[in-house]
Amino acid sequence: VGWRIEMKRLTSSNLEHVGLQLWAGALVLSDLLLARPQLVAGRSVCELGAGLGLCSLLAARLGAASVLCTDGSLEAVDNCQETLRLNGAFDQSC
């Protein structure tokens, strides 16, 4: 697609910061969304356990009507907000 995405992440962490890593599952789901953008285009999307928020960001860029990015860790949610801000997805929420 040619998009540049900026993210703050840890390369490894303890259990408390596990949401600040980029997980393989997020990459697999990202590939699916890029291959089938109609899954999110025009729809409301809620990402549970978003971690870095990569899939939420992609959903927003692929035309989701709204995106709610959630995680059980306040630090991960704060990081998701920063990721969305860095990448111009201001109207989405965490």
Low-confidence stretches: none
| Chain oligomer state | single chain
Distance between the termini: 25 Å
Coarse structural class? mainly alpha
Would you give an account of this structure?
- With 94 residues, this protein is mainly alpha-helical.
- The protein contains three helices and two strands, in the order H-E-H-E-H.
- The chain has helices at residues 24-35, 54-61, 74-86, and strands at residues 44-47, 66-69.
- Strands 1-2 form a two-stranded parallel sheet.
- Helix 2 links the parallel strand 1 (44-47) and strand 2.
- Helix 1 runs parallel beside helix 2.
- It is globular.
- It starts with 23 loop residues before the first helix and ends in an 8-residue tail after the last helix.
